[in-house]
Queue: 2 jobs
Job 1
Amino acid sequence: MHAATPPPADLADVIGPIERAVVADRVTGLARVLAQLEAAGAFAADLFPAASADHYQRRLIHRDPHDRFVVVGMTWEPGQASALHDHAGLWGAEIVVRGTMEETAFRLLDRDVEGRYKFRCQGEHLAPPSCVGILIPPLEYHSFRNVGTKTAHTVHVYGGAFEFCRAFSVDDAGWWRAARVDLSYDA
Ligand SMILES: [Fe+2]
């Protein structure tokens, strides 16, 4: 993990409303709060890490001192994508700030004795700026991709420290295998 870039002076204006929403009712009010912040231009470009040709970039914008939530900014070059992953049982709220993303949602159907998983794709949806998504376990499986022609910025709020997740890869027969991913920040 690298040292974080110093936060902007008005970061409290971003974190305050998010914290109040989480304290009031965890994820329920977050969609509205994130949309209001985005509409007000609160998610300035300097909140986000620089783009990289290697993979999408993650920056820790804020970690709640009581580990009730974290706020993460992500930067995606065109075509960059996450694997199908879970959220380690945490709720999540995500908003697209710049660019055009596509989210693919999956429903977990089965797990066999060998530890393989069966998912059903629930379909893709286009996520332009201001589009908010909420994931509440057990509906916590999805993937994200920048399908636009420009660099994309997204903000993610998770209901805990979110230090690891599971990423899934699929075989020719349609079974998925999980691998633990220890989550770190790029910048
Ligand atoms: Fe996710």
Job 2
Amino acid sequence: MNYFNPQDRPRMPVPFKGYPYYYPQYRIPAPYYPQGWNTFHHPIQTNQIPFFPRNFIPTQYLNEDVRGSWTPFSWVEKYAYAFSGPYNKAEVALTFDDGPDFVHTPLILDKLKKYGVKATFFLLGENVEKYPDVVKRMAAEGHVVGNHSYDHPNFVKVSNEEYHDQILKTGEMIQKLTGYFPKFIRPPYGSINEEKLKWATEQRFMIIQWSIDTLDWKGTSAEAISVNIFANAFPGSIILQHSAPSEAKLQGSVEALELIIPQLQSKGARFVTLPEMFSTSKER
Ligand SMILES: [Zn+2]
């Protein structure tokens, strides 16, 4: 079975409205699995759907404790908001947060160039100021630049004015270097509330979370990162890695690209940027 080959996987019904852009960030163990939700939402058993792990559970059934910072499922339908891309295309997106820096980002760019893969980088304004040449290189090599705020505040905890200022100031800095005002925003910590999401949608931004968290900032090894990705990748996956300044322990994350890219490509997966995945512009 190759999940990335449409000919080689069973037909999958859309289990509920809005599914293509949704995937839970957290898994919970089998005992929490509510009775009957799968037969209620769609007529086939979850073990017949290779995309769903056995303990897949829609976000709306999780309580706040279990889902952590997870936000309501309904927001994906109401706003320009996504955790993953369409499941009917064999596409996967690599995303790197908190950059640029002068150690890891150039190494990541070298690896991506080696494999001819384009990725999306969510940059912090304070690092864009420090390393403008790295941002220019990123853009020149065909990668997409997104906005990750100026200095990484928790958007839920700051005022609306501060939130708007963080986005607009960083967007303008990126525009000066790349020629476009980025459409894609990733909130620091994945933290966002409905009022701020509504503003971003009205302002023609798109807020993107992730479906696979590599936890690379903890110093995770390349092997552990690639095992996590192979266990969880599905068409439409958005993978979260970091390209943060040098004190972060990201060597494993950089090395993991050597494992992730060829192996997923051999299964037929294409690596795309977020504007490609969502068939939209990188520019606001
Ligand atoms: Zn971040």
